[in-house]
Design a protein that fits this description.
This protein is of the alpha/beta class. The protein has 2 domains: about 40-50 and about 125-280, HAD superfamily/HAD-like (Rossmann fold), CATH 3.40.50; about 55-125, DNA polymerase, domain 1 (Orthogonal Bundle). Helices cover about 40% and strands about 15% of the residues. The strands form 2 sheets. Strands 2-3-10-9-8-5-6-7 form an 8-stranded mixed sheet, with helices on both faces. The chain is globular. The two termini are about 35 Å apart. It holds the Pfam family HAD_2. This is FCP1 homology domain-containing protein. One of its GO terms (molecular function) is phosphatase activity.
Length: about 290
Amino acid sequence: MNLFIFIKLFQKTTITTFLPKKAFYGGFTINKRFSLKPVQSVIFDLDGVIIDSETVYYRINEKSLAHFGINYSLELKHGQMGRKLSEGVGYLLEATKLKEKGVKPEDYLKVYKTFFKEELDSTKGSGWPLLCGAQKLINHLNQNKIQLSLCTGSSSKEFPKKIGKCKELIEKMNTIVLSGDDPEVKEGKPAPDPYLVGILNVTIRRMHPQPSHQNNILVLEDSIHGVHSALSAGCRVCWIPQKQFFIPGELEELENKIRKEDDRKLFEERINSLNDFIPERYGLPKF
């Protein structure tokens, strides 16, 4: 076999690895199959993946619920993640019984928006802080001409105010979907999963060029709802949860459940931050 034929055959094959199917490395777990197709496109979530807005949202909801005499909790936080603001508020009022006491969504939103504005004003136009590894990874993938997309629940009104520190990074995205007020994104009730699948499908439809298969798309997500939705959409997933929003042992329990339910083995790994992301394991160029 001459060298030219060998190279052409190699380009058509999948990436082969000899790591175990599941392994533990430096504080994070991976699901390593013996055969992986290279990732052609990467979809980023904004909140909790690129910017540290989840910490801000926690403070805002904590103050807002305190206004109505209710304590905010991690359980309530998890129930909100992956929902539009309006749906998240509806969930909170139901879960805390505030709805039964006559508190309407507009009542809560009035208080919420006051604290939201305070948080934004405190940044003095710089937006919310970047999370570890986001800038390095986005710049690296962009320099290597990997298709990048942003899929977020933000609205077109709040989005520009949140991205002050990462505007240049966001400009590197080939596709951006702001599902907070995108007319093509349908709401999913009562669970957010169908809604999130809808966002992903809209994002994928708008990609140009189109990836050859959903399996060639990698979704970077921080919420458990987002992970389930990406898997349902047929995409591969890297989960980057923020540990401070989970009780001890909860992450491991959720991950084990995902792996048992993931028939197609699209759940790739759970990592602590994008600093732990290893591009070559997905067939992407090394740092």
